[in-house]
């Protein structure tokens, strides 16, 4: 059973930066897709950024140029670097890793990010 644990959320002011981390209990080379989603109050969960094993990287239009994915293979961790945060980035952020595309995959428990204006 795969376990994903997020960390790094918090309360920051507009314009600040945060780094979210997702630690996997298994090697991240096991996964074909690794991504971050977020869910704001009253809204659907949305994909923020993702990698796939084919080398493609996706960023939602709302975060392009501000958010960046990185990985630490030796620690089985994936990070989401968030710069120039805005109040509309406020949400619970979840990492999701899939062994195969099109499957549900595994979810972390979520980490709250709150950006004040």
Portion in beta strands: over 45%
Reading the helices and strands in chain order gives: EEEEEEEEEEE
Gyration radius, in Å: 13 Å
The number of helical elements comes to 0
Q: Report the mean per-residue pLDDT as an integer.
A: 96
- In the predicted model, the low-confidence regions spanning at least 5 consecutive residues are none
Give the terminus-to-terminus CA distance. 40 Å
Summary, kept brief:
The protein is mainly beta and 117 residues long. It has no helices and eleven strands. A hairpin with a 6-residue loop joins strand 4 and strand 5.
Which helices and strands occur, and which strands form pairs?
Elements (H helix, E strand, L loop, with lengths): L3 E4 L2 E4 L4 E7 L8 E7 L6 E7 L4 E3 L7 E6 L4 E6 L8 E8 L7 E2 L3 E6 L1
Parallel strand pairs: 2-11
Antiparallel strand pairs: 1-3, 3-8, 4-5, 4-9, 5-6, 7-8, 9-10, 9-11
